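User: Sequence for Leucine-rich repeat-containing serine/threonine-protein kinase below. Tokens please.
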Amino acid sequence: MYTLKQLESGELKGITRLQIVAELTEFPRAIFSLADSLEILDLSDNQLSSLPDDFDQLSQLRILFLSQNKFTEIPAILGKCPKLEMIGFKANQISYIAEDALPDHTRWLILTDNQLSHLPESFGRLTQLRKLALAGNQLVDLPESMAHCQALELVRLSANQLRHIPEWLLDLPRLSWLAFAGNPFSHVEECLNDSVPMIHPDNLQLNEQLGQGASGIIYKAHWVNKPQLYQHLPDDVAVKIFKGAITSDGYPADELDCCLTTGKHKSLIPAIGQIHHGETLGLVMSLIPCGYQNLGLPPSLVTCTRDTFAAGTLFTLDAITHIAKQMADTLKHMHQQQISHGDIYAHNIMIDDTFKVLFGDFGAASNLSNLPNSQSQKMHRIEVRALGCLLEDLLGLILPENPEYHSEKYQQLTALAFECMQDSSASRPDFSCLLKQLNTILPVYD
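Assistant: Structure tokens for Leucine-rich repeat-containing serine/threonine-protein kinase:
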């Protein structure tokens, strides 16, 4: 992060990335002195409501983040920026997008937590768009022209006012990660699932923070007073306390409902209780045993929708197959309960040194029970594509100099990933079929 003083002094000449947080109410024109080099501009967490009419002077700019500001519309000048492809306006007050406000080559657009009720027909021109986040708006429909957005892979539509899921959306050839909970046809005002007991927060002492995601913070907790009813539960547990009324993926009540509706599976992090107390909503879970670590890392600005991995990460083909088998079985179980996960990524999967899987994070999950059966089946195949992407990413870690790269098993797994990622969802296997094929490749795993 830099300061205005550094910018105005000329000290930053030639930099490619600039971030300033300084309660800005006007765009600092000194930024134009970086026009020949600046590729990434982050002015989030300021008080901006407009951009200058000559903003397109920033001819090298590829990425622009303006989250947590006061914009009420997308500045139309962005449509003239020659290289701008990644745009973020999370948590503004945007209610209007002009027809020509976005560059045709946009590939990543974040408009979470705004006030949009409609999108312009010109969205259909965004044929390179891969990632689109629209959760937490007031959208009542999507323009039919978006059927031309054939490159879309990740779409977030939770917490809007959509009355249905358009058929063309489910037919997009590359769509792999879709979330739509919290719309009138799918939203639950309050999770009424009683499959796990209600636990009063006073019975638990929250200790160190274990993790944090878009929807909440996870703590390690210990019982202060364990009621007789809960004597069978572990002494130490994990507690997820949900954030506020809405998150980047939707409403906490929908996440809790999807998690509890999914029920138990050996590869899912067990839910053992729920908290409903005043404004506090939480989920009590078993602690993840020692020795587990994340399978991968989140996508980067370069990979956009695909996970990354630490340098030197390598798995054997047997380990990859074992992981894929467990995930296929888990997702088969979820879809039998009419729940889609929406976020099937390596960074949401934990493994131990035997490659045993624990899967969680239901922030982008959706309940499919109110969809027509045909749409539910398409959601199933969309998630099959996501698993195909995961398999492809893991196989990509095996380089040509590795003897396994030239093996029959590698060819079989590569062909299976391709089958899962076919453009026509009807041509993809379901999870039951996928599991059978994986079992043929690796019947058992020690």
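The chain has three domains: 1-152, 201-286, 293-441.
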